[in-house]
Every structure is written in C-alpha cells, then in structure tokens.
Design brief:
The structure holds 2 protein chains of 2 kinds. By secondary structure, chain A is of the alpha/beta class. Chain A has helices spanning 2-6, 11-14, 26-33, 57-66, 78-86, 94-107, 124-136, 152-158, 180-192, 215-228, 251-257, 292-301, 309-320, 322-349, 376-390, 417-435, 439-447, and strands spanning 46-47, 119-123, 142-146, 164-168, 197-203, 231-235, 267-272, 284-289, 353-354, 362-366, 392-393, 395-396, 407-411. The two termini of chain A are 22 Å apart. The longest helix of chain B has 28 residues, at 318-345. The chains are: A alpha/beta, B alpha/beta. At the A-B interface, helix 1, helix 2, helix 4, helix 5 and helix 7 of A face helix 1, helix 3, helix 4, helix 6 and helix 11 of B. Chain A: This is 1-aminocyclopropane-1-carboxylate synthase.
C-alpha cells in the first residue's frame, strides 16, 4: 500500500529532503523518551541540543504585564482589535516594521541605518531562507555555505526550492575561519562539476561555532561575491547574542562604510526574533535586501508566511520601547556571557576546551581527545555514550557537516541554573572517568574551593546572582505539549 | 538581472486587474467624512460584520490574549512553543469547530490537521506534496485569482480550467471535467488532481451533492487527488446547507479506500471568523503521508503560538463558537439581501447564491459588446467614474464576459447603500444618455440566453483564453 501511495505524491513528499530521518535525530528521540526533570526524572537526558535563549524571559514577562495594550485583544487594546485582525497587507503593520528596523539598528550599536520599507516578513528565519533561495536561484543552482553549518539549512534552502548547497570547508587549524582560499577552492570545485553558484550564505554570528565573523572574513567574503557577481546572504539571527569582545560586525556596516565597492543588488540579510529575544513560537522572520526587485519579490512571497498581526502588534509595541530594549539587550548579553563562561570556563579547567566564542547560545566543544580514533564513526560512538551514559543530548559535528570529527555543539541557554549544574557535574564525572583523573581533587578544582558539590544537584542561589526565575529547562516539559499519539 | 526565473516572471499574478483595482482604491479610498467621493472597496472578500461578538468575548476572557491561563502567566511556554504539530488544545478546538460548521455530520481527527500560515500557505504546501513541476490541477472557472499565485508560482504546477458557464448556473458538469482532463492530456500535461472551492469564490454557491458525487467519481476513476478548499464553509446563510466532500465520502461508506486517501480539505479562519490578519490556515487529510509531509512543510509558515493560544481559548468555548456562527450567518444573509435588492433596483441580477461574502453579479447587459475588452471598459467606468472597486470576471478566469464579483460584508450598511445608489445612478445614466443603449433597456433573460448560444458557436478556443489570462 505504501509503495502504491508513493506514486500519488510528489518527489518532494517522498524524498529525504526534509532531513528528519537522519541519525542525528536519535539524540532528540533519546531525550523525548527520557527527558530530565529535577524531581520527576532526575536521571533523564538533559537537553543541550536546543539552541534556545531562555535566560531573560522575566524581563519580557514584566514588560508584557506592564503594557497590556500591546496584547491587542485585551480590554485595554480591544479598540484596536478589529483593525489588527483584518489587516493582512503583506507590507506589514508600519509600527512593526519601524520597530524592527530600529531594533536591528540598536543591536548594531546604532552604527547603521535600516530602511523600514525594506523590512519584509517571513515565516521565521526558516521561511526567510527558503524565500531568498526561491528569489535568487533556480532549481539545480547552488549556494556556497561555510562548514560547519546549521543542519536546517539543508531543508530550508534546498527541499522545495531544489537548489543545492556546496560546502566551503573551514578547519580547526585556523579556528574555522572563512578564508579566501577556502572560498575559491569550493567555487572551483563547483565550476568543474558544472554547478552554477548563485550565492554565498554566511551565518554571522555562526551557528554552531558561537563566534562573530571578524572584519577580514567579512570583507574577504564580500569581495569574493562581488568579484564572482554572486549574491551574499548574511543570516544575522544571533546578532544580539554577542556577550564578549570582539563584538559583532554586521554586513550592513561594511556596506555603509564601503558602499562604492559593493553591488548592493547582491546583498541580503536574514533576521529573526527567535534567538535574540527568545521568541521562536511567534514566528517572526525578516528579510532585508538592498535589491529592490528582491524586496518586491520576497514581499509577494511573504504571503506564504506572514507574521500574525496579533504578534506584529505586540512586537511593534515592545521594540518601540527604547528604554526597555536598551535594558534587555544589556542584561541578556550579560547573562549569556555568564552562562558561557561557566560552561566553557570550567570545562577548560579539566582539559575540555571549546573554540573561543563570543556569541550564540552554545559552545563548539573540542572532544577530539576523547575519540577512540579520529573518525566520524568514533564520533558517533562517543556521541552515543554521551547520550546514553552521560545522559546529555549534544549535537555531533558531523550533523553540521564539519570536516573533522570530534567537535560537538553544546547549548547552554535553554535551561535553568540548577539543570546547568547537574549537566556540568555529569560532564565532569564523565571526563574524570574517561581520562582516569583523580576524582576528589578534580572536582574541587572544577568547582572552586569555596563550594563542595556532591553528585546530586543542589540549589546554588548564592553561586548565581541571576534574578530570573527557575523554570523548566525545555519546552518539551511544558504542559502545553500533550502526548502526540 | 541575477535573480531566479520565479523572481522575474509574472506568475505572482500581481499584474492582474484583480489587484489593480485594489491599487486604485488605495490611492483614493472612500471615507464617510474625509473622502465621501472616494472609491468604495467592494473587491475585498472580508467578513467585518461580527467583530462585536469577538470583542465582547475577548473582554470577558482577558487571559486568552494576555498570555495567561487561570491568571498565571504562560508567556514563556508560548514564546518557546514552535512544535510544528501545533498546540494540541488549538487543534482539538479547531477540529470540533470544523465539525460544528458541518452540523456534526462528520468529525475531524486533530492528528490529521496541519496548521499553516493562512490557506494561502496550505494550498501551496498541498500542491508541493502532490505534484511535480509541470503537472496540473484542474480548477472550475470562475475561480479565486489568488490561486494563480498560490498553486503555480513557486511550485511550477499548471492550472487547467474546467469551464463552467451561466447556462447552468456555473455548475460543474461531467463533460466539462472530461474536456478539461483531455485538454491537459493533449498538451502532454499530467493531471494530479482537482481543486474546488466549496462554497465557491467568486460564485457564492455551495456545491450540490450531485457535483460532489461527480467529483468523487471522477477522481476515483482517474486516480487523482481532490482538494476541497472549504474556507467559506461557515458563511452559508441560506439553504441548501453546506455539504463537505468528507460527508459524501462517509455517505458512500468510503472508509478504507484509496480515494479517501486522495481527498484533502483546506480550511482557514480568515473568512468564517473574520481574522485574516492572524494567518490561521489548515490542511486536513486522511492520508498519513500527506499529513506527515505537510506538517514538515508547515515549518515555512507556522501559526504564531500567541495566536494559537488565543484561538484555542475562543474556539474551546463551544457555546460562543456556535452562537457566533449562527449570528454571523444571519447578518450575512441580511447583507446579501440588501445587495441583491440594491442590484435589482439598478436592473442588475445576481446569480442566486447561499454563501460567501460576495455576489456574482450579471452585468452582461451593460457591455457595449460581448467581449472582455468591453468588460474592461465597463470595469474601468465602475472603478473610476462610479467609484466602486469590484472584481471583473476575467480576473477570475470566467469564460463569459460581463460578470463581476461584488463583496458586501466588508463595509457598513450605510456604505453599502451608498454604493447601490451610485450604481443605480450610473445605470440610469447609461439608459438616458445614449440612444444606442436603448437596445438594452428592453433586455430580457431570454435575450441573454440567445446571445450566449451565439457566443458558444463563435467562441475562442480555451487555450487562447489561457494566453489572455497570463498577461
């Protein structure tokens, strides 16, 4: 019956382009079947494979509570309800577009200006990536993408658009920097295989590396694309997650500084509020293109994934509150920095290093020394141990198309402090075991002499000064999600 | 330039007259106080009649829109909730609501529902799931102009029209289905399915049981899909009552059959609840592979969790939801009567209809000639001189010139009356101003049929019509 069924559906419906049958979903499945909970399931799997920003909801919740009109359907805002509910103009609410443009400027330290009329909506960054691919490339064309890269790119950019991705291989020897050589090599290879390259996709700050692109990489990439007359798409969805110097340099800044050497028609930015604000559920994706035709086309295509006006209204109000935005950006960045410092800083003490990161919601952890062999099979084995024995879901480098085995992305912003400590303890114990280290002293060295930590988790309010509330560490535990069957 | 062919072609359909009228309206919109001579928007199929009901529900249920449940904030959970399976409470409520609209003659399993950002996204996703570029869907004409964009643009799929005519009230017939299918085959195009809108946009009529059975028979024998866009299902204000295609399947006892796996419904809350801004669409299918694939595809256009939560609360209030539908239908019925009466006063007849937010209006007798050029001339006069934005039948791919879709639910009663007065004045002026128009003064329905037959004999081939549309 199944085979017979398949002939009635499209190839898209029956191929693997959605990417969800990959082995990398095993970690998720392990977590789904056995999710950690501090009291109900303390031996469950802790989710560190989810790049979510859960650290600053208290600030947002307070704002929402103090600004009832922003929730347009309440008694306070109800006079606007009708106008909001019937507004389906794909230009979007002007106050939404203005607020988003201003917010993007603030995130870039007001060093650039964004034109609110170029703000185009999309169904999250997922929708934005796909729409840009539809606008810029035909089936069979390709985009260059530096590795390691976000696995969702494979689905978002290629599944329904039928374009291809050609990797630009970046290596640990130079901290995965995007070099001119790497770009040229990838381009040449594509040419030799008769693959037409239409653009280069950069993710800045990078997922999974957790680093912002330096000026040299950015300008090299820009010059490369201008020379080859291909598009440059900059996915800047982590732009407000920068917590340490060197800061974030947006392609918008480079464009502003050096407009003469840019063909603006080739430059496009993808943005979203899912990471910077922690709102993945609200589906706010943005395309910002310097090309009028692309802006126009993307706007028409946005009909397939407009932002709910209820949400546009909320966001428009929230992001127009300059004082709030200033406070939020500062505090969020600080909290991310603290978390990152905790995870990466402490692990470094026991010989687990990470790529030196300054942004994002994760560390790019170097576990090459724990591999039985420098192979991807060994990486999968280690990963299996981490999931099933250490009981932490992390993401193996191979899922990000990393060229070298042994790297793992470990997320740190999607859980509360307590869970973080439990996770870190587990990693510590695992490292002690794997390396045959002396347990007691190593633990002491790890946590510092002032505190004694036992293997069971303990509240450490004094250790963490963060005022935000304890909360379930993952939406999967949310009462909003019932059993799916 | 350097862009894709999709970016540079005109398949988005935005150059169609359907959208041009909108643009003219935007330049000079009617306002009772500030611009009383402006253009009245009658080209927008929106339901603005029952917001008061929604507003009072919201006032009584403040938690739903302020991210609270039982007074407790659930903002965080909602902000993080991006599971493409959708909020279970919302899907449950939506499934029940859909069943309620169908008089509970059918029930819907929430697990077979896929949420999408509006029916625009739902229709496109379904086509991506069911067809390859170059394949075709058959659509009865006249049809919603947006389909040219939604079904074809990024999917690369074709639309081949099933020609329906005024001779039988634009009903779908077997010969029309066969002809459309053969036309596609002769052009070496593989037909993957039929898409119907029920109730119909722009006709405002519910499909008869006869038509529905015909469609099921046809898709069964040709082994193709049937998509039933039922986004106006809650707007049926007169008998016959709405019959969903799912009900026909049930009546025929088509439980574990292949054809049941090829029948899919598209739904939305934009028309029935009047919430187009909130982007709430859905696909319903009994085919697990379609549900699985469409669910993954919905990642490109999910419904905001904020909105899912609000509407789950609203639709779970079953008493409210039921009362809303009933009261809304009453108001639509009244409006419809007002429009029909106003048209009659101007000597214009409408297709007899029982649903939708518009009437399919017969202005053939006002055309200078039985051509689409004359239809465009008349349309321009109505937009610019009379000040009404209505939608010409050609934009809906109607085979016969002279039909227009006129919306009645997106304005106040006063504005509707004014629109009808303007129209009457316009028609009166035609009769008075030019002797050659005296011919039309004694126009009768019988005359129209005779003219139609004459036209059938001399009509252009359907492929020529297709070229005309693509401009």
């Amino acid at each position: 019956m199944l085979k017979h069924q398949q002939q009635f559906l499209s190839k898209i419906a029956t191929n693997e382009g959605h990417g969800e049958n990959s082995a990398f979903f095993d970690g998720w499945k392990a977590y789904d079947m056995n999710p950690y909970h501090p009291s109900k399931n303390p031996n469950g799997v802790i989710q560190m494979g989810l790049a979510e920003n859960q650290l600053s909801f208290d600030l947002i919740q307070e704002w929402v509570k103090n600004n009832p009109r922003a929730s347009v359907c309440t008694a306070d805002g109800s006079d606007e309800f009708k106008d909001i509910a019937i507004f389906q103009d794909y230009h979007g609410l002007p106050e939404f577009r203005n607020a988003v443009a201003r917010f993007m400027e603030k995130v870039r330290g007001n060093r650039v200006r964004f034109d609110a009329d170029r703000i185009v909506m999309s169904g999250g960054a997922t929708g934005a990536q796909e729409t840009l691919a539809f606008c810029l490339a035909d089936p069979g064309d390709a985009f260059l993408v530096p590795t390691p890269y976000y696995p969702g790119n494979d689905r978002d950019l290629t599944w329904r658009t039928r374009i291809r991705l050609v990797p630009v291989v970046c290596e640990s020897s130079n901290n995965f920097k995007i070099t001119r050589t790497a770009l040229e090599t990838a381009y040449q290879k594509a040419q030799e295989s008769n693959i037409k390259i239409k653009g280069l996709l950069l993710n800045n700050p990078s997922n999974p590396l957790g680093t912002a692109l330096d000026r040299e990489s950015l300008t090299d990439s820009l010059h490369f694309t201008m020379e080859k007359k291909i598009h440059l798409i900059c996915d800047e969805i982590y732009s407000a997650t920068v917590f340490r110097q060197p800061g974030f340099i947006s392609i918008a800044e480079i464009v502003q500084e050096d407009t003469a050497s840019c063909n603006l028609d080739l430059i496009h930015i993808v943005y979203s509020l899912s990471k910077d604000l922690g709102f993945p559920g609200f589906r706010v994706g943005i395309i910002y293109s310097y090309n009028d035709m692309v802006t126009d086309c993307a706007r028409k295509m946005s009909s397939f994934g407009l932002v709910s006006t209820q949400t546009q209204h909320l966001i428009g109000s929230m992001l127009s509150d300059d004082a709030f935005v200033g406070r939020f950006l500062k505090e969020s960045s600080k909290r991310l920095g603290t978390r990152h410092g905790l995870l990466c800083g402490k692990l470094a003490k026991v010989g687990i290093t990470s790529l030196k990161g300054n942004s994002g919601l994760f560390c790019w952890m170097d576990l090459r020394r724990l591999l039985k062999a420098q192979t991807f099979e060994a990486e999968m084995e280690l990963w299996s141990v981490i999931i099933n024995e250490v009981k932490i879901n992390v993401s193996p480098g191979a899922s990000f198309h990393c060229s070298e085995p042994g790297w793992f992305r470990v997320c740190f912003a999607n859980m509360d402090d307590e869970t973080m400590i439990v996770a870190m303890n587990r990693i510590l114990e695992f490292v002690i075991q794997s390396k045959g280290m002396e347990a007691k002293n190593t633990r002491k060295q790890f946590w510092g002499s002032k505190l004694e930590i036992s293997l069971s988790s303990r509240r450490l309010d004094a250790f963490f000064m963060s005022p935000h509330r304890m909360s379930p560490h993952s939406p999967m535990a949310s009462p909003l999600v019932r059993a799916r069957t | 330039m350097n862009l894709s062919s999709k970016a540079t072609c005109a398949s988005h359909g935005q150059d169609s007259s359907y959208f041009l009228g909108w643009q003219e309206y935007e330049k000079n919109p009617y306002d009772e106080v500030r611009n009383p001579d402006g253009i009245i928007q009658m080209g927008l199929a929106e339901n603005q009649l029952s917001f008061d009901l929604l507003e009072s529900w919201l006032a009584e249920n403040p938690d739903a829109a302020s991210f609270r449940r039982n007074g407790e904030s659930i903002f965080r959970e909602l902000a993080l909730f991006q599971d493409y399976h959708g909020l279970p409470a919302f899907k449950n409520a939506l499934a029940k609501f859909m069943a309620e609209i169908r008089g509970n003659k059918v029930s819907f399993d929430p697990r077979n529902l896929v949420l999408t950002a509006g029916s625009t996204s739902a229709n496109e996703a379904l086509v991506f799931c069911l067809a390859e570029p170059g394949d075709a869907f058959l659509l009865p004409t006249p049809y919603y102009p947006g389909f040219d964009r939604d079904l074809k643009w990024r999917t690369g799929v074709e639309i081949v029209p099933i020609q329906c005519t005024s001779s039988n009230g634009f009903r779908i017939t077997k010969p029309a289905l066969e002809e459309a299918y053969d036309t596609a085959r002769n052009r070496n195009i593989r037909v993957k399915g039929i898409l119907v809108t029920n109730p119909s946009n722009p006709l405002g009529i519910t499909l008869s049981d006869k038509e529905l059975n015909l469609l099921i028979n046809f898709v069964e024998s040709k082994e193709i899909h049937l998509i039933s866009d039922e986004i106006y299902s809650g707007t049926v204000f007169n008998s016959p009552r709405f019959t969903s295609v799912m009900e026909i399947l049930l009546d025929r006892n088509y439980v574990d059959t292949e054809v049941r796996n090829r029948v899919h419904i598209v739904y939305s809350l934009s028309k029935d609840l009047g919430l187009p801004g909130f982007r709430v669409g859905a696909i319903y299918s009994n085919n697990p592979m379609v549900v699985a694939t469409a669910t993954k595809m919905s990642s490109f256009g999910l419904v905001s969790s904020q909105t899912q939560y609000l509407l789950s609360a609203m639709l779970s209030d079953e008493k409210f939801a039921k009362n809303y539908v009933v009261e809304n239908q009453k108001r639509l019925k009244n409006r419809h009567m007002m429009l029909v009466q106003g048209m009659e006063d101007a000597g214009i007849s409408c297709l007899e209809s029982n649903a939708g937010l518009f009437s399919w209006v017969d202005m053939r007798h006002l055309l200078e000639s039985d051509t689409f050029e004359a239809e465009m001339e008349l349309w321009k006069k109505i937009v610019y001189d009379v000040g009404l934005n209505i939608s010409p039948g050609s934009s809906c791919h109607c085979l016969e010139p002279g039909w227009f879709r006129v919306c009645f639910a997106n304005m106040s009663e006063e504005t509707l009356n004014l629109a009808m007065q303007r129209l009457k004045s316009f028609v009166d002026s035609i009769y008075q101003s030019n002797d050659s128009y005296g011919f039309f003064h004694n126009f009768s329905v019988k005359d129209s049929r005779r003219r139609l037959l004459k036209k059938w004999v001399f009509r252009l081939s359907s492929s020529d019509r297709g070229l005309e549309r693509d401009r």
